[in-house]
Sequence to fold (97 residues):
Amino acid sequence: MTARVAARFADDGPRCLPQERTSSGRRRFPGQYTSSTQIILVASAAVSLAIQEGGAAVVLLGLTVLNAVIGPAEAAVVGDVVLLVPARHRPTGAGQG
Fold:
């Protein structure tokens, strides 16, 4: 180090960003269920159960768990994959836009 660099280091400290504090997965997981997307998916699963569409309810609940575990951005990709399921296995109106 040159004298100038050493002086700046002594005055300003190291050039680095502060570390972000991360929370544990146990704390983050329940917090995912406060988003509107998760609430809608859980409500849809409940309605699916009420109308005796158990398969759809299982898929919807699976998506909510997946969404909570990997996060909403990555789960959006999974949602796009669900649209690739053949139409005979989708509820009426799903994927039509």
Remarks:
- The two ends are 62 Å apart (CA to CA).
